[in-house]
Amino acid sequence: MASVRIPPVLRPSVGGEREVEASGSNIGEVLQSLVTSFPATKDQIFGADGALNRYVNVYLNDEDVRVLDGLETSVGDGDHVVILPAMAGGS
Amino acid sequence: MEGSVQDTGTSGAKSAAEFAADVKSRIREIGPGEVHEGLPEGTVVVDVREDGEWATGNVPGAVHIPRSYLEMRIENVAPDRSTPVVLYCAAGLRSLYAAKTLIEDLGYQDVASMTGGITLWKDAGLPVEVKKTLTTEQADRYSRHLLLNEVGLEGQQKLLDAKVLLLGAGGLGSPTALYLAAAGVGTLGIIDGDTVDRSNLQRQIIHTEDRLGELKVDSAEVAINALNPDVKVVKYPYRIGSENIMDILPEYDIVVDGLDNFPTRYLLNDASVRLKIPVVSASILGFEGQLSVFSPYEGPCYRCLFPVPPPPELAPSCGANGVLGVLPGTMGLLQATEVVKLILEKGDPLIGRLLLYDALATSFTELKIGRDPECPICSRDPDSITQDEMGVFPDYDAFCSGGH
Ligand SMILES: [Zn+2]
Predict the structure, then answer these.
(1) What's the CATH fold of domain B162-403?
(2) N or C: which end of chain A has fewer CB within 10 A?
(3) B16-123: CATH topology
(4) Contact indicator for B86, B29 with CB cutoff of 8 Å
(5) Residue of chain A whose alpha carbon sits nearest to that of B284
(6) Which of B285, B362, B399 to mutate to test the interface with A (most CBs of A within 10 A)?
């Protein structure tokens, strides 16, 4: 199981949790298991083609999965996955 | 003669004028012209005037040792007694006495006094160097900076010379502006077209109840001037946009991004890459903040991190959102800290790193962000970035219209 950090904009879709546990041996599986548990997150994370939305960054621990193996990036027990959309609030 | 002072035998004593004439006859004097062009290699020129006089300008290359400290400090600049030394003061008399001291009391072998001092030097039309020095008030105001090796006089001067542009005098801009002003950042530009509303005061601490309804740039200027009169505030009472950004940005060394909407953040990114101006960027929502420093061509840009903005339903900047009042304080002061580090060129700036702050969890998370070799902006030569494409997204028209 990996822990997945949920950004503020997705929290309403996961019952308000800041962090949830999700299983899977790679990033794609972990995110799929998140989407299965919380279907409202699906369109916010994945595009129609099943790829990650370009406006959502996903990190394994502190590395962007795009510079690792993308959705194929292996995830081990205790790893931290961070979902990060851009924020623009300043005032 | 009771109680009177007897003549104690001062037959050897001289009047001040006699003393001066006597010293003058024994000390070598050289004219400003010779000091300007005829000094042997290695000659040390010492200005023996007081601090306030030195501040008005000096012979270029001279070192400053006030007359009263001469015996204590001369060895710092001329450790060897055979070093040629030329002394000067305002009009040529104090330097004559100072030369006498160096020769007769300290054993310097090659000492001269400059005739007529800096006054004659200036009258001869010779160049004067005005060293930037702190006023007495500034030395007091910034004394805790001056005690730090990483700041000191040189660093404080850099701060006073720095020009920082704040995009917004709102949640992030308020604390950033106040602390940068307190630190002595000499020029603060502020762009904001809004007026002060009561709902701002929960977090926008540069504004006050009695300035409700005033332009935020005016209100911010009042607060900044009250805190530190050294700071020059340049006000831009309108929103930044493609029509004005290229006129404003080039005037500044660093931009602080506290913008409340995506279109302007992308516009700012593209313009700052084009102009190679670093941007200290933060954003806030609810209990969370993000922070990074985008230094063009040194690290990633905003588009490397977020190639496209989220659709409006996932872009909560479109409309009023809750934010913990303290949060922009925390994030704004992290921004101010990065700005000061960039000005001082000290420490490791937050370039290529994104810092997430979760106030509810009291946790900081740091993520690595790299340059995108295919970035539509910073993978290119800056001169090839045209004004027409700044802030623009082909195939993307879903921006909300500048909500905040
Ligand atoms: Zn880039």
Answers:
(1) Rossmann fold (3.40.50)
(2) N
(3) Oxidized Rhodanese; domain 1 (3.40.250)
(4) no
(5) A89
(6) B285
For the domain made up of A2-85, the CATH class stated in words is: alpha beta
B92: left (phi over 0), alpha (psi -120 to 50) or beta: left
pLDDT at B109: 96
Distance of CA B57 to the CA centre of its chain: 21
Range(s) of chain B covered by CATH 3.40.50.720:
162-403
**DSSP label at B395?**
T
CB contact under 8 A, B260 and A89: yes
- Averages of pLDDT over runs of 10 residues in chain B (404 residues) are 50 86 94 92 95 89 94 94 96 96 96 96 93 89 95 94 96 97 98 96 97 98 97 97 95 93 90 97 92 97 90 63 92 98 97 96 95 93 86 57 37
A42 touches chain B (CB under 8 A): no
Question: What would the DSSP string read from start to end of B324-373?
Answer: -TTHHHHHHHHHHHHHHHHHHT-S---BTEEEEEETTTTEEEEEE----T
Q: Judge contact between B134 and B55, C-beta under 8 A.
A: no
